[in-house]
Amino acid sequence: MSSIHAIRTLISASLAALAMLPAVGFSQELPAPMPVTGTLDYRMNERVIQVPAGPDDVLLETTVFQPDGAGPFPLLVINHGKDPGRPSLQSRDRFYHMASVFVKRGYAVMVPMRQGFSKSGGRYRDRGCDMTANGYTQAEDIRATLAYARQQPWIDGGRMIVAGQSYGGLAAIALGTEALPGVRGLINFAGGLRDDSNRCAWRSQLVAAFADYGAKAKVPSLWMYGQNDSLFGPELASRMHAAYAAAGGRGRLVEFPAFKRDAHGMLASRDGEKVWLQDTEQFLREIGMPTAIVVDVPAPPTPARTDYAQVDDIAAVPFLSENGRRAYRDYLTKMTPRAFAVSASGGWTWAEEGEDPDGRALATCSAKSKEPCRLYSVDDYVVWHDERIDRTEKAAATAALMPAPNPMADSDPTTSVGSTTAR
Which of 133, 163, 311, 371 is buried most, with the most CB atoms less than 10 Å from its CB? Predict the structure, then answer.
């Protein structure tokens, strides 16, 4: 394969991975935003701690959620995937929606960023196309997180489970080849790692990796893969699970129907709970872990609906140029949860899916706009609360504030970035 063809293949794979991520669209007049990290959630006692790992005690940036009280609480450890690009630029993963389900059931939740990811120390350790070695390498940081957790008085070291999404799922199943005191089960959400570099037969490498893990497996597992997973589709998921089970691994495979645009991002969606909760609760009961709701976690506050305009009244959105109006029209086709923010200087941003689209839209817009940004609409309703701006006045303000749109840019008025679980 020529070097040019290899580069095109890698670029195509990266674009395909980005297409499924929680998205942010922004004005062409504004430069691309940096990933946005959500604020800490007091309702679940969210905090960020440093967990030592490895022989040099590298510190892992680790998000913790827990109920009120001293505990000890049963523990869920959730492990992240890998975005395209440099791991150090990846945002802190929270798995907020899954964490809230478990906190309601009395669990503490820990989400460690492995070495080289986000603000964790160390460097990302890549074993290339050797998927077996990749899984074992990433499992080392999960093991260190569990060892730290067992030393904490607020953790019940005899009742722990480990989950992972994408690359984190591969690592979780690799971890299960060891004797793990207190770990009763593993949950693999779309586990695997894709490598489209030249001459990497990553699919067969993944099958071989899971066969290796199955031959040494010591912990029962639950596997969940969706029919429209863009990375690990039904045929590959079945091959990986069959290899694991044939080698002796104990794991039940759940193949769920198509989920939105791409099942690979199901765990990051607020609607994913409808897919994974029932089978997860069944698995928890089988391994003697609690499932009853014992803690009241209030729903996050949402912006109030206003009667400023109908959500699909594009002309009512203030401060937008023609380019921005096209972007808002495109925004109306996006999945919920979603949010659209605008500024008086004509900047605009939309965000869809994932965690906190309201906050992501506002933060991205405000960071790049000359004027403060405010939310205009959320999901399927308008939250803008100013009095309606006269259309002539609005047109004059827009014309004064915004440069003439670039004709070449008009064909592509939005772009997207994302965080978490790409591979």
Answer: 163
Name the nearest CA neighbour of 236 among 294, 194, 187, 297. Answer: 194
**374-420: pLDDT as tens digits:** 999 999 999 998 755 444 444 444 433 333 333 333 322 233 333 33
Tell me if the bond preceding 72 is cis, omega within 30° of 0: yes
Q: How far apart are CA 144 and CA 308, in angstroms?
A: 53
Question: Pairing mode, if any, of strands 221-226 and 183-189?
Answer: parallel
Q: Which residues of 100-124 are buried (b: 16+ CB within 10 A; e: fewer)?
A: bbbbbbbbbbbbbbbbbbbebbbeb
pTM of the complete model = 0.79
CA distance 245 to 239: 10
Position 70, amino acid: A
Cα(54)–Cα(58) distance, integer angstroms: 6
Q: Residue 52, preceding bond cis, omega within 30 degrees?
A: no
Give the whole-angstrom CA distance, residue 122 versus residue 57: 9
- Count of CB atoms within 10 A of residue 333's CB? 8
Q: Which residues of 4-28 are buried (b: 16+ CB within 10 A; e: fewer)?
A: eeeeeeeeebbebbbebbbbbbbbb
φ, ψ of residue 377 to 5 degrees: the values are -140, 155
User: β-strand 155-165 against 73-79: which pairing, if any?
Assistant: parallel
Q: What tens digit of pLDDT does each residue of 104-128 get?
A: 999 999 999 999 999 999 999 999 9
Q: How many Å apart are CA 174 and CA 132, to the nearest integer?
A: 8
For the CA atoms of the chain, what is the radius of gyration?
23
Q: State both tokens at 302.
A: 């949402």
- The Cα–Cα gap between 181 and 177 comes to 12
